[in-house]
Amino acid sequence: MMARALALAQKGLFTSTPNPRVGCVLAQGESVVGEGWHEKAGGPHAEVVAIDKAGSRAAGATMYVNLEPCSHQGRTPPCVDFIKKNKINRVIAAMLDPNPQAAHGGAQLAAAGIGFEHGLMADEAKELNIGFVSRMTRGRPWVRMKIAATLDGRTALADGRSQWITGAEARKDGHRWRARACAILTGIGTVKADDPRLTVRDVATSRQPLRVVVDSRLEIPEKAKILEGGNTLIFCGVENARKLNAEVVTLPNKNNKVELPRMLEELARRGVNELQVEAGFRLNGSLAREGCVDEFLVYLNPSFLGDEAQGMLALSGISSLEQKIKTRITSLDRIGDDIRILARL
Ligand SMILES: NC(=O)c1ccc[n+]([C@@H]2O[C@H](COP(=O)([O-])OP(=O)(O)OC[C@H]3O[C@@H](n4cnc5c(N)ncnc54)[C@H](OP(=O)(O)O)[C@@H]3O)[C@@H](O)[C@H]2O)c1
């Protein structure tokens, strides 16, 4: 039943942001009497959809839900009240709600005499909402850095050309990861070299992620494709009166570049759960050096470009092997002719 609730929650993978992905199953014994999932912020929560589907069969049922039911009045009323009103007998949550505003729903249920347990499939539940958990517990998004490289770790020719390093299937897979991200971040070097749109294409989704550019001196060309259609945020390091089709936030560090950790906090404040980085080796290196990466999503093409081509991360000052940035591989798959590696710090 919990596995089914998680599968339902997965349906909100591309759309529920900034809310968590939540699925719910109501069962009477072995029979499912209602199911639901949360599609988007402002829409009904999974618990409410499941109870509505169950109708009169909700009374006395056991609820399986991947996140503790909420106790707060947000854009919709507290789920806890609806659960009590509909006389659910027992609630089993995979994990407690890390959102301090919505938490303690379980305790409120227990106080009302409704059995409440949590912990069933907790790891899977945390994984599904890794960005939401990160934003609630660390005040920053989960940062996934996507890199397409050759077997010798090269991401572009020395002159900046990089389209395309990997094959069509890997690129489509990259768009699926984009679709689940709340925001996609790139650097001014990539905007100048590639003029990317950074929209989700080739994948069906009703939502486009926010596009974010790190541009210290606000040099972005007015005609850059990333500015088309709005929905773009630029972080820069200097005050500048340029009028652009984007919101500009000045967050300077001591070198008048962008203070990257504060940028992550600002993105979290705006509700960004998962941030996908698609930048060149310079910004990638800065983010890695400043502890602003949680996971690497690397596509490796079985080819070589040699050591004059650009690498993955500009890192200086590594003089001993002890200083290498160590990761742990969490998945390894073949995508078309390429290999996809997910590795976590
Ligand atoms: N294969 C791939 O996966 C992939 C993906 C994207 C891009 N690319 C390739 O990467 C190349 C571009 O690389 P790139 O390194 O020039 O571009 P980039 O990393 O997208 O952007 C570089 C800029 O980031 C800035 N930067 C670094 N740290 C910063 C900080 N803390 N605050 C503000 N700005 C900061 C640098 O600014 P300053 O000049 O002020 O130091 C630099 O100009 C292109 O050829 C593109 O095709 C490849």
The tally of domains stands at 2
Structural class: alpha/beta
Query: Total number of helical segments?
Result: 10
- List ligands, each type once: NADP nicotinamide-adenine-dinucleotide phosphate
Tell the overall outline. Answer: elongated
In terms of quaternary structure, what is this? single chain
Largest sheet: 9 strands, mixed
Instruction: Work out the strand percent.
Output: 15-25%
| CATH-defined fold name of the largest domain | Dihydrofolate Reductase, subunit A
- Helix and strand succession? HEEHEHEHEHHEHEHEEEHEHEEE
Architecture of the largest domain, CATH level 2?
3-Layer(aba) Sandwich
Query: Could you name the CATH homologous superfamily of the largest domain?
Result: Dihydrofolate Reductase, subunit A
According to DSSP, the number of beta strands is 14
What does this 3D model show about the protein?
This protein has ten helices and 14 strands. It is α/β, with parallel strands linked by helices and 345 residues long. It has a nine-stranded mixed sheet with strand order 10-9-8-7-11-6-12-14-13. A five-stranded mixed sheet has the order 2-1-3-4-5. A hairpin with a 2-residue loop joins strand 13 and strand 14 (338-344). Helix 3 packs parallel to helix 4. The chain is elongated. The two termini are 32 Å apart. The model has no long low-confidence stretch (mean pLDDT 96). Bound molecules: NADP nicotinamide-adenine-dinucleotide phosphate. NADP nicotinamide-adenine-dinucleotide phosphate binds at residues 147-148, 155-156, 160, 162, 165, 186-190, 193-194, 214, 216, 237, 257-258, 260, 278-284, 286, 310. NADP nicotinamide-adenine-dinucleotide phosphate (NAP) is lined by residues 147-148, 155-156, 160, 162, 165, 186-190, 193-194, 214, 216, 237, 257-258, 260, 278-284, 286, 310.
